[in-house]
Amino acid sequence: MDWLDQVKWDAQGLVPVIAQEHGTKDVLMFAWMNREALAATAARGQAVYYSRSRQRLWHKGEESGHFQQVHEMRLDCDADVVLLSVTQHGHDPSIACHTGRHSCFFQRLDTRAPAPQWQAVEPVLKDPESIYK
Predict the structure, then answer these.
(1) Where are the domains positioned within the chain?
(2) Residue 104, annotated ligand binder?
(3) By C-alpha distance, which of 92, 38, 42 is closest to 67?
(4) Does domain 3-93 have CATH number 3.10.20.810?
(5) Are the beta carbons of 67 and 46 closer than 8 angstroms?
(6) Is 80 annotated among the ligand-binding residues?
(7) Residue 2 annotated as part of some ligand binding site
(8) Does residue 97 have a known ligand-binding role?
């Protein structure tokens, strides 16, 4: 059986993917891959995702210059989530998020307020306007 056939693709032919920083183990981002993106990622050693909004493959860094070198790809026990161990490379290798932050997971739920609310707890490292020209 082909390794791609072992993945449990959803009804749209996609699988969720978590990108984790190789050294720190920080969760950098969540995205989707289709069969073509997963095969391209394995072949080129850089993350290639599927953009649902653009309906096309998206080589991480093609616009921002923040590429992800893939060290390892793992499949979870249900075969329906992929985990990538990556190192960020590019103009500013500390940025993985399109908001100019290190991680896309920069908001934390503050339950101490009268009503729970999301608070940004990670700084913007670079203005996104200067990244996406």
Answers:
(1) 3-93
(2) yes
(3) 92
(4) yes
(5) yes
(6) yes
(7) no
(8) yes
